[in-house]
Amino acid sequence: MALLSKKDTSLILDPLADNNPITIQVLGICSALAITAELKASIVMALSVMFVLGMGNVVISLMRNIIPSKIRIIVQLVVVAALVIMVDQVLKAFAYELSKTLSVFVGLIITNCIIMGRFEAFALANGPWRSFLDGIGNSAGYGLILIIIGFFRELLGSGTLLGFKVLGDPIEKTGLYAIGYENNGFMLLSPMALIVVGLIIWVQRSRNKALIEEN
Amino acid sequence: MAVNTDKNSYTVIFAAVMVVIVGSLLAFFASSLSEKIQENERLEKQQNILYAMGVNENVDEGSVNFVSTDKVAGEFEKYITEQLVIEGDKITKDDNAYLIDLKKQETEAKAGKTRKLPLFIGEKDGSKYYIIPMRGKGLWDAIWGFVALDNNLVVKGVYFDHKGETPGLGANIKQRYFMDDFTGESILKGTEYAGIAVAKGNNDPTNEIKDDNEVDALAGATITGNGLSAMIKESVNLYKSYLESIRAKN
Which residues cross the membrane (chain A) (predicted)? Predict the structure, then answer.
């Protein structure tokens, strides 16, 4: 028996493209705007969300038969918040440097609508293993978009990638800057993240016509 | 056995049990890890103070590398020769002055008490460094830092950090290219304690003019920059009388 059945594979692969949480479901936009000015921050955020969503989906899925439906949203919130606080504390104790880098992002994970969305839509109705795969898949889809946006915003906005000056030094006028290239400071501001998301959605839909809604 | 999860009593009991379990879990985590977290924060403070006076492991132009955590305690003892607590006119020596919580002292001062001002004196290659810790407000949350001065109140090095400034914008106050600009600036303008302003209209991006009490601002981070300027100015004025005495000795 293969480790992943065909259905399980689609749980991971679907959210990467045709059912992407950001570009198709338009969830998690807030953090996509807030933290993508740097590529590193995008990667870190993607990994943190992957951990919390994977774990959270499993926890919710295990409890799905005993959660009272009236207060299920509160229960979900408590689970995310508890997980996030635990991650934060453990990082501060054992990986202090890393926790400094993460700083605000850890808290921001709680507000990510993808997490609540997956709890509500998937984990409450499926077993732990499939929920785990769904969590990993969706956070990977989210992370992919985050990294693409972070890549373009950092490259065009600051002329760096992961902090390395890939286009040369803007003050010393080396590399591309020597021939008159300028950084586009506008890329560092949040609206440009939305425009980049828009461009990704455009590209994606023009390649896959099935995604275009009729109206 | 199927439970009727829709019953009110079940809902209330579930909520109560959940709160107790999650609460005790978090309390357990917090209390079992707090010692380690505090130790990490203590070492970080030592690293930051040493960084401000130029004791670090920087290898290139771009990155900030502290003295490694296993060495920092020894280096701290070696380079920081004296730690003072200034309380009004009273100056006492205290080897744990670096553990003083500036935020707490700020609230004490607001309540009308004299605040304790820690000051660290370091010695490296025969010259003295006076390191002032400071704390202020950025755009979203607290910012803080350490500024090392020499006998003439010229900045020898700084370290800034923040709790939650915007990544890529205000968060860049802890980047090398920003912090390095402060070196060589004086906190004095004539006889006034003007501090160093983070100025947008500085017109000196490579920071060659060292007598203007200004460094080049970070694009897109006006409020963080203003907060930083205010923090430096306020803090050096708190230490004014002590700094005057250093200048007088010269």
Answer: 41-62, 74-95, 101-119, 140-164, 184-203
Q: Best interface-test mutation with B: which of A36, A55, A78, A87 has the largest number of B CBs within 10 A?
A: A78
CB distance B220–A185 less than 8 Å?
yes
Amino acid at B106: E
Instruction: Write out A49-72 in H/E/C secondary structure.
Output: HHHHHHHHHHHHHHCCCCCCHHHH
Q: Is the ipTM of this complex over 0.85?
A: no
Q: Which residues of A touch B10 (CB under 8 A)?
A: 68
Give residue-wise pLDDT tens across range B154-209: 999 999 999 888 877 888 898 888 898 899 888 888 888 888 888 887 777 777 77
Count contacts between A and B (CB, < 8 Å): 80
Q: Which residues of A touch B15 (CB under 8 A)?
A: 68, 71, 74
- Smallest CA–CA distance, residue A171 to chain B, in Å, is 7
Chain center to CA of A123? 18
Residue A210 resides in a domain: no
Q: How many domains does one find in chain A? A: 1
CB contact under 8 A, B167 and A37: yes
CB within 8 Å: A93 and B36: yes
Range of the domain at A189: 20-205
Query: What's the DSSP call for residue A13?
Result: H
- Which residues of chain A are under the pLDDT cut of 70? 1-3, 101-104, 215
What are the Cα distances from residue A200, in Å, to A37, A46, A146, A206?
17, 18, 11, 10
Instruction: With cut-offs at 50, 70 and 90, classify the pLDDT of residue B142.
Output: very high
Q: Contact, B48 vs B133, CB < 8 A? A: no
Asked whether residue A117 is assigned to any structural domain, the reply reads yes
Closest CA to A165 of A179, A183, A150, A147: A183
Q: Is A4 domain-assigned?
A: no
Three-class DSSP category at B128: strand
Contact B164 A103 (CB under 8 A): yes
Is residue B18 less than 8 Å (CB to CB) from chain A? yes
Phi, psi of B160 (to 5 degrees): -120, 150
At residue B2, the pLDDT reads 59
> Is A190 within the bounds of a domain?
yes
